[in-house]
Amino acid sequence: MSASLHQKPDTKMPPGSTLRSPELRTLTYNIWGAHGAWENRRPVLINRLRELQPDIVALQEAVVRDGYDQIVDVLGADYYVAHQSLRGDDGSGNSIASRWPFGEVRELDLFVTPRVGHGWLACLTVAEIRVPDPVGLLLLVHHKPSGQLGLEYERELQAVAAARFVEELVGERRIHVILTGDFDSTPDAANMRFWRGRQSLGGMSVCYRDAWESVHPDESGHTFTPHNPLVANGELPLERGRRIDHILVRCDDYGPTLDVITCARVLDEPVNGIWASDHFGVMADLAVPTASPAGSS
Fold first, then answer.
1. CATH number for the domain harbouring residue 72
2. Which of 173, 195, 211, 280 can pair with 268 through a Cys bridge, CB separation 3.0 to 4.6 Å?
3. Considering the domain boundaries, does residue 293 fall inside one?
4. Is residue 294 included in any domain, yes or no?
5. 3-state secondary structure string across the chain
6. What's the domain count of the chain?
7. pLDDT, tens digit, for every residue of 96-127?
């Protein structure tokens, strides 16, 4: 595994940007590159994403090549953008967009066993984002572990490596951490139980609050499902449906440092018969808690 450091991207942003409300709107979405009928999917994505107006966006399988930036194409120019450096042959990779400037942006290669192989599909990207008060500086952790069904062992190793990396970056700072991405794992998988504080792995433990579970504890919330014909007619025709796209908030000793106000699936219905991607997105509105735990300082 290796980590690399990148400078702040040069994407321009109109001056004077502030939080529109106490909420911080975060969205994760596997955009599926330019696969399928991209020219039909493109306007659906553009219209819906601009309606949703997310503040911070983590996109998987986004294409950046030959002067074309799929992130800027679908979101518009009003974002700072950071791209994972290692990308597929077609330009696919993981990207982060933010309404506010980045500080340092770091990567961690999640090559943990020979079964993984080096490539953009197993990588962690961590971006410092200078969100206006009351949120302040936060870390956006964009996690993309291995996706093959039989690689849960690798996903466990990748989760531990990613968590250690994040804890080292946090250090003694009191800072918010949002963990998001296409994890290719359901909530009951060991690596997701680890992230959610339900079990330890590799001699360590952490605890992150699952945004979907916080708001919809009794709903499956599948984000990759044969209800979407792009899944049913794709590479996994026997897929039964899973919740594998997640937004989580790091906890301190008393609970998550950001309160989950709302969480919803998005881009989960067709528009005039057009499905935006083979995944559904997840969006959460987060806010700084209005009260501190008794006895804390």
1. 3.60.10.10
2. 280
3. no
4. no
5. CCEEEECCCCCCCCCCCCCCCCEEEEEEEECCCCCCCHHHHHHHHHHHHHHHCCCEEEEEEEEEECCEEHHHHHHCCCCEEEECCCCCCCCEEEEEEECCCEEEEEEEECCCCCCCCCCCCCEEEEEEEECCCCCCEEEEEEEECCCCCCCHHHHHHHHHHHHHHHHHHHCCCCCEEEEEEECCCCCCCHHHHHHCCCCCECCECCCEEEHHHHHCCCCCCCCECCCCHHHHCCCCCCCCCECCEEEEEEECCCCECCEEEEEEEECCCCECCECCCCCCEEEEEEECCCCCCCCCC
6. 1
7. 999 999 999 999 999 999 999 766 679 999 99
